[in-house]
Write a structure and sequence with these properties.
Layout lengths: L11 H9 L13 E4 L6 H9 L5 E5 L3 H6 L8 E4 L14 E7 L4 H5 L25 H7 L2 H12 L4 H15 L5 H11 L11 H11 L2 H15 E11 L2 H13 L19 E7 L3 H6 L7 E7 L3
Parallel strand pairs: 1-2, 1-4, 2-3, 4-5
Antiparallel strand pairs: 5-7, 6-7
Helix pairs in contact: 1-2, 6-7, 6-9, 7-8, 10-11
């Protein structure tokens, strides 16, 4: 019997409210629009979006995880469709066709809590970490041939780990002495043996696991592609809502919104018209104290909201 892994959707009402809170004169019938849930997960946001739509509204979801796509079969609603793809494929949607776009980044609880997925150092499992288990290399496969400098660069860049060099050397030394690392607990123990100091309450392997997961799934590159695509697919007045869970993601989102929320002048052509603003920043929201108490995994979440301006 397959285990059912629970997932608490972060900033559920806040995210969906932000998608639909257009001014009435801009979107008199926002419920008739086309919305995108770019990371379906277990469908918490999607189900609430559907409850806000009229009979004419539509919801398109994306997810790389085949288990998430299988979960979506429980939604028997003709207004809903899902694509087994990452949200870097957003640009394939028709230009200016989307009324609201939601990206809930990071890893879902079912992915973390299922040992077979290899995302967590808390459980014994294969060292996989792929969002899409039907394609690409697992972390274990990559570590078979990855060089010390490459491993260190990944841990340093995506994990912001100051012990990236020693960890990379230990991984390669272990590979040469006893063969490649193949399980989550092997990697966690190796990192714990290498990293002698860590912030109170944080497992020594936290940053390394984050780094390998981000790298193997090309998460930051995909986020950048999806944000650029949002400018193409959002209608004027359409909403962009992004929930991030660590500083690397949030920095990209924050800088993207800021860069497109101001007029830019070309210093080489001082009399030319400035590049027009494409977005209006509408602020950021953090989870309430009550949500964090009920779901500690929400504590690092930051939601940023922007609105597409007329081209």
């Amino acid at each position: 019997m397959q285990t059912s892994w629970n997932h608490a959707t972060v900033l559920l009402n806040e995210a969906v409210d932000a998608l639909f809170s257009h001014k009435q004169q801009d979107y008199p019938q926002a419920s008739d629009g086309i919305y995108v849930d770019a990371t379906f997960g277990r469908g918490g946001h999607s189900r609430l979006i559907l409850s806000r739509l009229s009979a004419q509204g539509r919801l398109i979801a994306f997810d790389k995880d085949p288990q998430a796509v299988a979960e979506s079969a429980a939604i028997a609603d003709t207004r809903f469709s899902i694509r087994h793809e990452g949200f870097s494929h957003l640009g394939e949607l028709p230009a200016q066709s989307v009324t609201g776009l939601l990206m809930d980044l990071g890893v879902s609880s079912p992915q973390i809590d299922n040992p077979e997925r290899g995302f967590s150092f808390r459980f014994e499992g294969p060292l996989d970490m792929r969002m899409d288990t039907t394609r690409g290399q697992s972390v274990a496969q990559w570590l078979v041939t990855a060089e010390i400098n490459t491993i260190a660069e990944v841990i340093r860049e995506y994990g912001e780990e100051r012990f990236a060099g020693p960890i990379a050397k230990a991984i390669v030394a272990r590979r040469q002495e006893r063969g490649p690392i193949s399980t989550t607990t092997e990697l966690a123990q190796l990192v714990a043996d290498t990293v002698k100091t860590r912030e109170p309450g944080q497992n020594p392997a936290t940053r390394t696991f984050q780094a390998f997961r981000i790298f193997i799934n090309a998460e930051l590159e995909e986020l950048q592609q999806a944000l650029e695509a949002s400018l193409k697919v959002l209608q004027p007045g359409g909403r962009l809502v992004v929930i991030s869970f660590h500083s690397l993601e949030d920095r990209i989102v924050k800088q993207f919104i800021a860069a497109h929320s101001r007029e830019e002048y070309d210093r080489r052509a001082p009399f030319a018209a400035p590049k027009v603003m494409e977005l209006k920043a509408l602020g950021r929201i953090r989870p309430s104290e009550g949500e964090v108490r009920g779901n500690p995994r929400s504590r690092s979440a930051i939601m940023r909201v922007a609105q597409r301006l007329a081209a």
